[in-house]
Amino acid sequence: MPTIKINKLDKYYPGENGETTHALKDINLEIQDGEFVCIVGPSGCGKSTLLEIVAGLLEHTDGEVLLDDIPVNGTSRDIGVVFQDASLYPWKTIKKNIAFGMDISGVPKKEQEERIAKYVKMMNLSGFENKYPSQLSGGMRQRAGIARALVMNPKVILMDEPFSAVDHLTRCTLQEELIRIRQEEKKTVLFVTHDINEAVYLADRVILLSPRPSTVQEEYDISIPHPRKRSDEYLVQKAAEIVAAISIGADKQEAVEYYI
Amino acid sequence: MAAKSRESVVLQPVSKSGTGKASKRNITYINVLQVLTVAALLGYMEYAVTSGKINRIFMASPSSIVEEAFHIAADGTLWPHLILTLQEVLVGYALAAGVGIIVGLIWTMFPKTEAYGNVFCSAIMAIPKTAILPLLILWFGIGFQSKVVLIFLFSVFQILYSTVTGAKQCKIEYLKVARVFNATKMQTVFKVMIPAALPSMFNGLRLAAATALTGVVFSEMQSAKAGLGYLLSESQNLLNTPRMFFIIILVTLISVCFVKLIAAIEYLLCHRWSRV
């Protein structure tokens, strides 16, 4: 049964001089329960826009987004979001940052403590609970950002280029951790990235968006089980396929612009 | 010589990063020079005034300033004036801080109120506050009230605008996080926007603390029956130069302490998380 269903989604941005930008055009997607889907595409193609619409942070112009057959109107407890630079509050300790969502929804302190303890352990943040974000590395901050989303126990986790701000080695570690957590927690994950290798390594399915106005250009099933090897020939080939498809999309756009 | 200068070039960065806090307390020859400069200046003042090279009306010797300080503290002349000035500053400043922060938050929460009120506040802010002192005296008399109102006007806009600026600088991501967790408007303001605005808010509070004292001394000099500013202009009329010097020093110290106090509150609230 699909968790997220996106039907004929359109998004226009009002631009300057009354011109509108057509960001997303007729996006149709179904994401199954427990599936890990990566969205890739050329920069500026509206990956993050799509994610923010699903998160309920952004209004869409036309079409619908359904979560378990209920239209998404605004943010929802069932959807957790992990932001690009973690976006922790600098004035709160790591622990208080993780507790933020529970504070907002009035979860009793005792339950908060238990849940925080669980996710601090899961995200390898033990010993850093009382540190402030400025005292932590980018990787640790993003761990806290993920813990903050997971602690609310949402059905779906949306991740907007979560590992783009950390160095390569940290990124690899975080990827391994994400795979492990996802298997432990059985979450549906929608993951936006511009790193094709990351996408094929993590995902069950990779969605390639075309340049603006974005549509689903191509879908790739990555049908090998975890644990995967980064150097796996199948993955390397898939990645090459996607890279080739991106450049075809980019060429088309250039040609169109040229003839206009 | 060459070896020595090379040594100091090499040692400087080491002592900075290596010994950390301890190196800050090291007394350098620059500090010694500074102390000597001040001592020489004071010594010359003492000599010039006592020997009669400079007329006692124009300059006070350090010893006579100290003497005068003990004198007016001992005979009780100083205290009522000092207490009154402190009261005026504290009441005016507290009102300004309260109103500035509250209006700033209202503006942030309801942008239409800012659209409405901004033009009026900018207009009033543009008036040199000292120019409306005669009017304030007409309306509120020459006592406590007119001083409080003037200090209020001196400080409130700085606090208001730094609060608004701080809240506006709140990163869009911070607000997105609040929305993802379905925070109400109140929760967003109190748990996200106010903490995010704190550093800028304190910037305004610190600047306003310095100007508040300027305001009160000025207005007391113009027209008052008491207060340090009154005492200052009175000692001018009596040609009591040591007392003038003492009051200037006292007002400076109060101003510095006031600013330090605000900085200390800021430190207590923010030092653990704000980047050093």
Give a brief outline of the structure.
Chain A is α/β, with parallel strands linked by helices.
How far apart are the termini of chain A?
Answer: 44 Å
Approximately how much helix is present in the residues of chain A?
25-40%
Parts with pLDDT < 50 across at least 5 consecutive residues of chain A: 255-260
SSE order of chain B: HHHHHHHHHHHH
Widest beta sheet: strand line-up of chain A: 6-7-8-3-9-10
String of helices and strands of chain A = EEEHEEEHHHEHEHEEH
Mean residue pLDDT of chain B:
87
Largest sheet of chain B: none
- C-alpha Rg of chain B, in Å? 25 Å
H/I helix tally of chain A? 7
List the quaternary state of the chains. heterodimer
Total helical segments of chain B: 12
**Alpha-beta content class of chain B:** mainly alpha
Based on the model shown, name its key terms.
A: 260 residues; alpha/beta; six-stranded mixed sheet; B: 276 residues; mainly alpha; 12 helices; 82% helix
